[in-house]
Amino acid sequence: CSAGQYSGTSSETCLSCGAGKRLTIAASGVESSACTACSSGQYSGTASVTCSNCAAGKRLTNAATGVESSACISCSTGQYSGTASTSCASCTSGKYLTNTATSVEASACVDCTAGKHSGSASNFCTPCASGKYLTNSATGVESSACTSCNSGQYSGAASTSCTDCPAGTQLADAATDIESSACTSCSIGQYSESASTTCIDCTAGKRLTNAATGVETSACTACSTGQYSEPASSTCSECSGGKYINNGATGDESSVCADCGAGQYSGTASAACSACDAGQFSGPASSTCSDCSAGKYFIAAATGDESSVCANCGAGQYTGTASATCSACAAGKHLINAATNVESSACIVCNPGQYSGSSSTACLSCAAGKYLTDSATGVEPSACTDCADSHFSGSASAFCSSCPAGKFLVDLTAATELLACADCSAGKYSETASPACVDCETGQYSGASSAFCSSCDAGKYLTNTATGVASTACTTCSTGQYSASASTTCSSCNAGKYLSDSATGIESSACTDCSAGQYSGTSSETCLSCGAGKRLTIAASGVESSACTACSSGQYSGTASVTCSNCAAGKRLTNAATGVESSACISCSTGQYSGTASTSCASCTSGKYLTNTATSVEASACVDCTAGKHSGSASNFCTPCASGKYLTNSATGVESSACTSCNSGQYSGAASTSCTDCPAGTQLADAATDIESSACTSCSIGQYSESASTTCIDCTAGKRLTNAATGVETSACTACSTGQYSEPASSTCSECSGGKYINNGATGDESSVCADCGAGQYSGTASAACSACDAGQFSGPASSTCSDCSAGKYFIAAATGDESSVCANCGAGQYTGTASATCSACAAGKHLINAATNVESSACIVCNPGQYSGSSSTACLSCAAGKYLTDSATGVEPSACTDCADSHFSGSASAFCSSCPAGKFLVDLTAATELLACADCSAGKYSETASPACVDCETGQYSGASSAFCSSCDAGKYLTNTATGVASTACTTCSTGQYSASASTTCSSCNAGKYLSDSATGIESSACTDCSAGQYS
Could you give the 3-state DSSP secondary structure of residue 502? Predict the structure, then answer.
């Protein structure tokens, strides 16, 4: 029996042990004695000789399978197990899982680092949040593991204690381990003790001297005498200018400093106020004294504010600043600005027509009827002059004016032309500066306010002298009359003429003869035209009935005609009252004719058509229709019979009575007198044509017909066409030879096709003459029998050839028939090409992708890295997590997959194992990715690549989370916090007068008698220097 099988005596087959068992005795026919159940934590598949252990880090779930991935499952998060385990154990609270593949908690679980906590079954520890510190590591709940920092304290993540903000600062952010971020310095003038959340202001009258204390007496110092400060001040201030010190007072400015009085001033930090100099003034709390402003003068010996020391200048006077006297404006000027010491800015010259004396605040105006000659005096008789005759002026005038043309003077003392001058009345006129108005001459007219008189234009005559508007002074001559300019009457044109220019006094220029066809009476402005349908006979008349005569019968004329016109031949008169032939005469209707000057048209008789409309004789106008055409009366053309018809009566205009349709099988073209038969062997396709190739089509292959046929006839099945040009089948069609067949309407006979054989003696179509070969047989064309397929080949019914088994199948020896009887599919994991007797198996380490080929490289594909297979596999199996592939060419995992080395991890189907990078340590060797397999080292620890755990930093060094190394503080600083990766928060600068070497945890002080010269050294001789002679420390 094969491995894993057993049998009793006289057995025909061997039996396999069931899944979950292993073979112990092959020579037995009873499974209970041949097979033994796998031990606890082991599994096996069917026909197994051994049982397999579940790997460490897994537990058994199904013993009855040979595949680890089905038999064993990985322990849950935070659990571990040894080899062949049926259950997993959990890490206790305060620990986290680092190695799942062990049964010993001390090897599987690691204590949480300082500042971190965990619950049971954890694969990582949780750091306390910033602003909290660890009180209980053995819990997975932050609210019970971590306690918030006290008021004024701060901490970073994973802290075991909190730090106080130093004195002189206040807490800004408890959730950080960096002092510069957690604590902010007190503002200027504020102080605080350590662990403060707020800073305190120094009170008024004090200044800050020490911010790092919580007691005001230590933090704040009183201001010196004569100084003050506001609350929260870092310095004291002296009294400002305009104030003096209130000796003995303390506090803010209002308590320590008093204001100087009016007429006094002081500088900064003054003990008393000083009086202003003579001629100066000041207001209360002034730091300086001021001069009297422009426009004022100072009062000798006066003191105090401006109202006491300075007086305004008198009327018409001016001055600049700090003046003891004021100046007066000169005669001919007046004051506009008292606040200046420059006359051109203070005083302005009087306007034209005005005058003034000295010290004037305003100018006086000359009286009406006078004008100005000298503004620089205050007495009118010498300043103003009377206007000349016929001139006028208003008050304050620089000159006198005269009345314009068309007006005369009525008031010489008026200020404006409107008041001084009156308009001349209509019919009068005046020139400039006239004392009175003058009457117009005879025959002239004018309106009011006229500077001259006017005459009427030519074509008009005078009717009103007393108006300035031509439309009311002059009247236009009547219709047909004319006149010259300045006329008092108008003249008339004679009969036969009309007025062309009324604006002339000469008849030859004013009157024009009427145009041809027009007439007029005496005094006519226009000429009249004879109406349409008439002609002119007498031009010198004003009455149409005597001037115009009607046109003769058959004639026409337009308006203003001297003659009448005849309608042309081929037309007739419809409207005599027009001068346009197209409107007066219309063409005769279709098939009609006429002579010259006709009032009606004649028609051609039936059977004729019109060729000449311009005649009154029918023989000249109408022509007989040609053969095959017809017409009715009054036709100008003849109509041909349509295609498919022929002519029987030409003397009618109706096709149905003139033309007859061709008989069946006949055709004709348009205008035909007879029809033509289609020849034998054709059929009628289109009767309406005179072309035989278009009218008649040849019968199709296998058809025949006689002449004048409308359809063709098929040869019957079993016959072929020999003569298409006959209407009898016996002469048109011939029977097929023995063993041949034809379908209806065939021109040839055919032999039986491949896959069929001849049914001897049968006639007719293919189904009657030829029979199908059976499955497993074949035949060629015109075969009398069918042949059997060769061994290993197959065919279906009616086949002309036999086929080999297709790729992916092999042939069954001695089988016959179709493919399902002859060919079988290859087994699982096997392949073959066409016409094969056997199938091939994919080698171990490969799996089948294409059964239908005889080339292994096309049929089988190598397993992916981390996978393996046995021979004849259709799929590859994956190495379990925590293992990697060494040899893919086997189907047994123990020999295919290798456990990862210590401190390495891998997921399922891995080709290699990975290690955690520096700064991390391994927590799960079965994880597929670094993110799941590795945890960060906590602050204050470090690790190298592939480390199983993190190592504490040495004394004097610090590190942040995920550190690959620890760092030392620089010289001049010392270590205060190991659990941080930032030098600014890990290292503190030595205090004033202290020094340190690099990697120091404390600072050293210089001895007495020495001072610090270099803090960044650890050697006193380099760091400290002796005090100079006469100095001590």
Answer: coil
CA gap 280, 274 in Å, rounded: 12
The pLDDT tens digits for 668-709 are 888 888 888 888 888 887 877 878 788 889 888 888 888 888
- Model confidence pLDDT, tens digit, residues 135-189: 777 676 777 888 889 888 888 888 888 999 988 889 877 777 787 888 998 988 8
> Alpha helices, DSSP H only, in 241-399?
253-256, 306-309, 343-346, 380-383
261 burial type by CB count under 10 A (0-12 exposed, 13-18 middle, 19+ buried):
middle
Question: How far is residue 442 from each of residues 437, 451, 527, measured CA to CA in Å?
Answer: 16, 17, 38
Assess contact for 979 and 997: CB atoms under 8 A. no
What percentage of the chain carries pLDDT values higher than 70? 94
- Pairing state of beta strands 756-758 and 146-148? unpaired
pLDDT tier, 716 (very low <50, low <70, confident <90, very high otherwise): confident
Report the alpha-carbon distance of residue 1011 to residue 1024 in Å, rounded.
5
Specify the higher pLDDT residue, 1027 or 576: 1027
- From start to end of 31-131, where are the E strands? 35-37, 42-43, 52-53, 58-60, 72-74, 79-80, 89-90, 95-97, 109-111, 116-117, 126-127
Range in 74-83, 499-508, 706-715, 786-795 with the lowest mean pLDDT: 499-508
Q: How many helices (H) and strands (E) does the chain have?
A: 26, 110
Q: Please report the beta strands in 158-309, taking only residues with DSSP state E, as ranges in sequence order.
A: 163-164, 169-171, 183-185, 190-191, 200-201, 206-208, 220-222, 227-228, 237-238, 243-245, 257-259, 264-265, 274-275, 280-281, 290-291, 296-298
Q: In what helix (H) or strand (E) does residue 819 lie, and over which residues does it extend?
A: helix 819-822
Residue 210 Cα to chain centre, angstroms: 63
Taking the chain, what is the end-to-end CA distance rounded to the nearest angstrom?
104
Give the single-character DSSP code of 702: T
CA distance linking residue 383 with residue 366, whole number of Å: 8
CB 310 within 8 A of CB 326: no
On whether the CB atoms of residues 366 and 356 are closer than 8 A, the answer is no
Look at residues 781, 783, 727, 737 and name the one whose alpha carbon lies nearest to residue 758: 783
Structure tokens at 15: 């039996």
Give the model confidence (pLDDT) of 211-265 as tens digits.
778 788 888 988 877 688 888 888 888 888 888 887 767 777 777 888 888 888 8
Task: Of 594, 651, 588, give the one whose Cα is nearest residue 618.
Answer: 594
Cβ neighbours around 847 below 10 Å, total: 20
How is 606-661 classified by DSSP, letter by letter?
A: TTEEES-SB-S-HHHHEEEPPTTEE--TT-SS-EEPPTTEEES-SS-S-HHHHEEE
Q: Specify whether the CB–CB gap between 868 and 843 falls below 8 A.
A: no
Cα 920–Cα 921–Cα 925 angle in degrees, nearest 5: 130
Integer angstrom CA distances of residue 185 from 143, 150, 163, 913: 32, 19, 16, 53
Half-sphere exposure of 572 toward its Cβ, with a 13 Å CA cutoff?
11
H helices of 662-802, in order, are: 692-695, 729-732, 766-769
Q: Any idea what DSSP says for residue 395?
A: T
Q: Which residues of 14-36 are buried (b: 16+ CB within 10 A; e: fewer)?
A: ebbbebbbbbeebebeeeeebbe
Report which DSSP code applies to 335.
E
Q: Tell me the average pLDDT across 374-381.
A: 56
Position 20 scores a pLDDT of 84
Q: What is the pLDDT of residues 631-645, one digit of tens each?
A: 877 778 888 888 888
3-state secondary structure 249-288: CCCCHHHHEEECCCCEECCCCCCCCEECCCCEECCCCCCC
Q: Tell me, what's the pLDDT at 792?
A: 67
